[in-house]
Design brief:
The complex is a heterotrimer of chains A (780), B (291) and C (168). Chain A is α+β, with helices and mostly antiparallel strands. Helix content of chain A is 28%, strand content 26%. In chain A, helix 5 (220-231) crosses helix 6 (257-269) and helix 9 packs parallel to helix 19 (743-755). The chains are: A alpha+beta (780), B alpha+beta (291), C alpha+beta (168).
Chain lengths: 780, 291, 168
């Protein structure tokens, strides 16, 4: 009925949040200032694994200003725990302040409070801790070594959990195979690095017994529930607010010990308490990511058909299990998504989470998928090389073409454009492929083209969570839509923006349904006081589920508006169209009533409502994903130029052909894709969080942890194919993480192409490229 | 990540600055651009009790006096790109400046700061050694002239004594028949070098008469590539056997190894960049000859 | 404590500061300028860039006492609360920002660059634009939108100043 009218969804709408971000008037966590506030500075563990013998705080007494100090003795019993409910799981508990032992460098040991942050930092230096160093478990091999001492007292070995996933008949696949190709792949430890560090401010109001916690988080409701459970507070009297969040990328998608401790300190001291993380703390003690080792064994027919796949997956998850996705999150995800976009029906994965004395592993854009895709897509190129096939040819031979497709683990994929994206990319890259081939004659400069085809499961529904048996049982997003007497719309949605532009997109969605302009829609998020309970923003669900929930709630309101309009215009409500601020009779544009007038009637002049209609304009909807979620797909391709003599690699071209279903706002979709890709390029070439043998962190500053700068990056080409999914109200699939998933694989494949060798690990920095080019260099 | 307390003193004159530095000894540090010192202070790796701000002093001169280019300690990096004499006479210097940090750092960082900080992979210490520059250090006790070759003692270690500060760097003007080039490999363009090599040659009648080659990233301070320098002597510009010179240098070194680069990689880069810098210098020499 | 006078966004004020206070902290705490962001406190990310005497400088590597008598500008003074500077408008239309945390630093770094290009009446290559912003880290946008915004701002500003001669 409204199909022929221009809509806001799908348009390149400029973001409404930009003005405050550009003008400096946005409000981030460090901008929260309260009267009489105490500033918190941590004393953090200097050893990776040590017994705490004594904590000496006497030095604080000599200071000219007052300080307050707390240690693990004061906070005993308060911890972050995140268990996976399987009998194989060994449990870890991270105390908010270390009690008897420290288990990674950077773990909080003492909390020092002062009126001024500089003073608090000075004071924290005066706390002396006497440690008895213990044997450090520093590598995956050490973690698997039964001779090594366990990091936790009641543990056997240092494996959090090891499990299996399987489907189909792998023995049969192996028996049928003409080729067995086995490789071990490794992705280095890295971290998400939002430009804004973490921070928490808490204030307890004795009069109302309300605790307010501001925290730079992606998951305000989950933080609230955790605080309440751990501190024994009613959820009705705890308000968690995420202000403007300066990047998250999954890093801010866990509940951290600091988020539990700071509220406790505010209640204990009776004063507001503020903690702003510094960059050094952030690098060594927020969360890390990747650090995956995968051994894959492919069973392939003589013609290049993938018959079966065996995977052995190890992840170094650090010292503690993180909330809510747990230590099992990354290995489990890698095992689950490994089958990817290819049609085969025999698979077996063994996957384990290994405990070491390193910063805990948590979620970072892509969560295990970048590593799984790296391994699988590298393997596809290895298979192609072994069989003498072209990388596009091997993929086109194996790619899934008929949808819906039930994969080897029982997940059913919604329609996608896997083969089309391969064909499109091959056309776009024709000149580069030819140039790369010509460069093979050179021992000075080589060009390589590599691609990575992948799918990104997003917007998954409750069953996908419950089967994991971790403290995140569901992933629905709730929205509440209200209209005011003047016709303005308030959308409260259980998301938390950290760059995605929710305020704009949610307004576009509501405006289309309600027939108003997006500028009349005020979107609120990130505050548990105003927004309905939801899991927050992660897992590529903001667009499909958040947008979907807003859409469905708006539809309920629209229905009511139409009923009122139909009554007033004396026509069937089905004939009423909401558009341009008017409720009009379809086909008779002069018969209309302004929507704001309908609002006034629904809320004030209720005597004009149809008989029996309840006053008010408020609707809520909680949208769960479909059981298997949505499967966005993308093809990433990289063209690299390698200086054989120096190992210097230049990224000449990077392109993406992506399909996220219905595009809600192309401006934002392209931004998400490009931003993710550049993070993925960092993963592929630069970013490496290094520990020494004693697990001392060596990458704690931006001089040591190298992220892509503008000078390292080409313009990123983004091409779209739109295959709407039937599984979400708007046809949108999850998209936010996809950009970060493909680059490591695409770039590694390009390097392998350029140098004609196997590439098995990242980062592909200067030294590594130089090493890989040795044969060519020395063959001259 | 905030500094420990210190007292701040704004130097009114060079003598005032030197008197303050003499008074504070090891506890005092001159503050110029602050692009190296302040990060160290924020990380609390440097904890000076006194900072003597020298930014107001008239040390931002670049002047040619006879055969010497004198560069005041407060000259900011971005200025070299605009100085005619550097573009025309100091090509390797000009090349090197483009590898220093990023624009905001280049607009603030100073030569005095870079030389005194002595980061093992910074460009300007290498440039000073390449041209056989003299570091002019002053203290309340007077002036010391220290050859760049003797100035850099290790990572962040120099011949400067407590109470002493760099006031200028003197670069001898290269002779008429000379040419140079500077090459660098770093992970990202604005990073400190993994390895960098500067080469400066003099020539006569189409042959190399002398060469000076300096590399960073091999040891914890810039080093001269003496075997390469010797190998080039007498070679024709058009066939200078740069590759052999690079190899001669690389064979005699045992480079450091760290998280950025292995010893083997550094050795290979030292050879390759020496070869490229020499080739570029020779090419520039030949081009100059054609004019 | 040391007595200093700063002119911040056109307003002169005397204040007493501890010498070790970073300019970034003083602008945030004493002047309430929340657009000054600290990303790394070691000069590697550009988030804290402000103008001192018209030149982009890192306020995390500058002590407030050093700025006695100086004129300082922060992002708040560039295009007002509506962010109406042509570069800010271009950031909006080209999607040059996402989470916004690094954005004020980019604006302060790039406003003088844009002005210089307009004065020189030339449209720089992408490489030159990328080099101009190589001291700033953006973790969200992949830089693409920022480069596009700079190009657009230069073009728009040249058009606005009547110089239709897009050289280069």
């Amino acid at each position: 009925m409204q199909a022929d009218r221009p809509r806001h969804v799908g348009a390149r709408v400029q973001r409404v949040e930009d003005t405050r971000l550009l003008s400096g008037t946005a409000r981030y966590i460090d901008d929260i200032r309260l009267p009489n506030m105490l500033h918190l500075s941590f004393v953090r563990a200097q050893y990776a694994h040590a017994k705490i013998l004594e904590i000496d705080t006497d030095g604080l007494a000599d200071l000219a200003y007052p300080t307050i100090v707390f240690t693990g003795k004061d906070t005993a019993g308060i911890a972050v725990t995140a268990h996976q409910d399987f009998p194989e799981m060994q449990f870890s508990e991270q105390p908010v302040l270390a009690e008897d032992k420290v288990r990674f460098v950077g773990e909080p040991v003492a909390a020092v409070l002062a009126d001024d942050p500089y003073d608090a930092e000075d004071a924290a230096e005066l706390v002396f801790i006497d440690y008895d160093p213990l044997t450090v478990v520093g590598t995956m091999a050490q973690a698997r070594d039964p001779e090594m001492p366990a990091i936790f007292d009641n543990w056997k070995g240092n494996i959090f959990i090891e499990r299996q996933m399987k489907g189909g008949d792998l023995d049969a696949a192996k028996a049928e195979a003409a080729h067995v190709i086995r490789r071990t792949f490794y992705n280095q430890r890295q971290t998400g690095v939002p430009m804004e560090c973490r921070g928490v401010v808490a204030e307890y109001d004795q009069a109302s017994r309300v605790l307010t916690v501001w925290t730079s988080t992606q998951i305000p409701h989950l933080v609230r529930t955790y605080i309440c459970e751990e501190l024994g507070l009613p959820e009705s009297r705890v308000r968690v607010v995420a202000p403007d969040v300066g990047g998250g990328f999954g890093v801010k998608g866990q509940v951290f010990v600091e988020e539990v401790l700071v509220p406790w300190l505010a209640m204990k001291t009776g004063r507001p308490v503020k903690w702003i993380e510094d960059r050094r703390e952030h690098m060594m003690a927020s969360i890390h990511a990747r650090d995956h080792e995968h051994t894959l064994e492919a069973y392939v027919s003589a013609e290049g058909r993938l018959l079966g796949l065996k995977a052995d997956i190890s992840v170094d998850v650090g010292a503690y299990s993180t909330y809510p996705f747990t230590a099992a999150g990354d290995p489990g995800m890698a095992a689950k998504v490994m089958p990817g976009p290819y049609d085969f029906q025999a698979y077996e994965a063994t996957f384990r989470a290994l405990a070491t004395n390193k910063c805990p592993l948590g979620t970072y854009r892509g969560v295990a998928r970048p590593s799984a895709v790296f391994s699988l897509e590298r393997l596809m190129d290895e298979i192609a090389a072994e069989l003498g096939m072209d990388p596009f040819e091997i993929r086109l031979k194996n790619v899934i073409r008929d949808f819906p497709y039930k994969n080897v683990l029982g997940f059913t994929y919604d329609p996608g454009s896997y083969a089309e994206s391969l064909e499109k990319a091959r056309d776009l890259l024709a000149a580069d492929i030819a140039e790369a081939a010509r460069s093979k004659a050179s021992s000075d400069t080589r060009i390589g083209v590599g691609c990575a085809l992948f799918i990104e499961q997003g917007a998954h529904g409750t069953p996908d969570f419950t089967r994991r048996r971790v403290p995140i049982e569901t992933g629905y997003i709730a929205a509440r839509v209200e209209m005011e007497p003047d016709g303005e719309v308030i959308v409260d949605v259980g998301l938390q923006n950290h760059g995605q532009g929710h305020e704009t997109v949610m307004a576009q969605v509501a405006a289309d349904v309600l027939g108003v302009d997006p500028s009349n829609v005020y979107v609120r998020q990130g505050d548990t006081l105003t927004t309905p309970y939801s899991v927050g923003t992660w897992g590529s669900r903001g667009g499909p589920l958040g947008g979907g929930a807003v859409h469905e709630a708006s539809k309920i309101l629209a229905e009511k508006l139409r009923a009122i309009a139909g009554h007033l215009l004396q026509t069937d409500k089905e004939k009423i169209v909401l558009y341009g601020g008017k409720a009009q009779v379809d086909g008779a544009e002069d018969r209309f009533i302004e929507i704001r007038k309908l609002c006034r009637i629904a809320l004030r002049n209720v005597d004009q409502l149809p008989e029996g209609m309840i006053p008010g304009l408020e609707a809520a909807y909680s949208l769960d994903g479909s059981a298997d979620g949505t499967y966005a797909n993308a093809l990433h391709a990289a063209v690299v130029e390698i200086d054989i003599k120096t190992g210097k690699m230049k990224l000449r071209r990077f392109l993406a052909v992506e399909d996220c279903g219905t595009i809600l706002n192309p401006l934002i979709v392209d931004g998400q894709v490009r931003g993710g890709i550049v993070q993925g390029i960092g993963s592929a070439m630069l970013e490496h969080f290094i520990y020494d043998e004693e697990c001392q962190p060596l990458s704690t500053s931006f001089a040591d942890y190298l992220m892509p700068l503008a000078t390292e990056i080409p313009n990123i080409e983004v091409h779209h194919i739109e295959t709407p999914t039937p599984r979400t109200p708007l046809g949108a699939k999850g998209l936010g993480e996809g950009g970060a998933i493909g680059p490591a694989a695409a770039i590694a494949n390009a390097v392998a192409d350029a140098l004609g060798i196997s590439v098995l690990k990242t980062p592909l920095n200067g030294n590594e490229i130089w090493r890989l080019a040795t044969a060519i260099r020395e063959g001259e | 990540m905030r500094p420990t307390p210190f007292e701040y003193h704004r130097a009114e004159s060079l003598d005032h600055a030197l008197a303050l530095l003499a008074e504070f000894g090891e506890e005092g540090r001159p503050l110029g651009g602050g692009q190296s010192l302040v990060p160290m202070m924020n990380l609390r790796l440097a904890r000076p009790a006194h900072l003597v701000d020298i930014n107001g002093l008239p040390l931002d001169f670049i002047e040619v006096e006879g055969d010497v280019l004198r560069v005041g300690a407060l000259v900011r990096h971005e200025r070299y790109l605009k100085e005619k004499v550097i573009g025309e006479r100091f090509a390797a210097f000009h090349d090197a400046v483009q590898w220093i940090g990023h624009p905001t750092i280049r607009s603030r960082g100073t030569i005095g700061g870079s030389i005194a900080h002595a980061d093992p992979s910074a460009e300007l210490p290498a440039v000073a050694m390449l041209y056989g520059a003299t570091i002019i250090a002053r203290s309340a006790n007077g002036e010391r002239r220290i050859a760049a070759d003797d100035f850099f003692l290790g990572a962040y270690m120099t011949a400067l004594e407590a109470g002493e500060m760099v006031v200028a760097v003197e670069f001898p003007l290269p002779p008429a028949h000379s040419a140079g080039a500077f090459m660098e490999i770093s992970e990202r363009r604005s990073d400190f070098a993994t390895v960098s090599v500067g080469a400066q040659i003099t020539f006569s009648g189409g042959s190399i008469t002398g060469a000076r080659i300096v590399a960073t990233g091999v040891e914890l301070q810039p080093i001269r590539a003496i075997p390469a320098e010797e190998a080039l002597s007498g070679k024709p510009l058009s066939a200078c056997e740069a590759r052999a010179a690079g190899r001669a240098f690389a064979e005699g070194i045992d480079p450091i190894s760290d998280n950025v680069a292995s010893s083997e990689y550094r050795r290979s880069l030292a050879a390759e960049l020496t070869s490229r810098a020499v080739e570029k210098a020779c090419q520039r020499a030949l081009e100059a000859g054609q004019e | 404590m040391q007595e200093i006078e700063l002119e911040v966004n056109g307003v002169r004020r005397r204040l007493s500061v501890e010498p070790r206070r970073l300019l970034a902290d003083v602008l945030r705490q004493e002047f309430g300028l929340s657009g000054v962001h600290i990303g790394c406190a070691q000069g590697a990310c550009g988030c804290c860039t402000v103008h001192i005497e018209g030149v982009p400088r890192l306020s995390c590597l500058t002590f407030a006492v050093q700025c006695d008598g100086a004129s300082i500008r922060t992002v708040e003074s560039i295009g007002g609360v509506r962010a109406e500077h042509l570069l800010q408008e271009a950031f909006r239309s080209e999607h040059g920002l996402q989470c916004g945390y690094c954005t004020p630093g980019y604006i302060m770094t790039l406003v003088p660059f844009v002005s210089r290009m307009v004065e020189e009446a030339r449209m720089p290559e992408d490489e030159e634009i990328r080099e101009a912003m190589s001291g700033n880290i953006c973790r969200c946008t992949g830089y693409h939108g920022i480069v596009a915004a700079v190009r657009k701002a230069i073009g728009d500003q040249m058009a606005a100043s009547g110089g239709a001669n897009h050289a280069g």
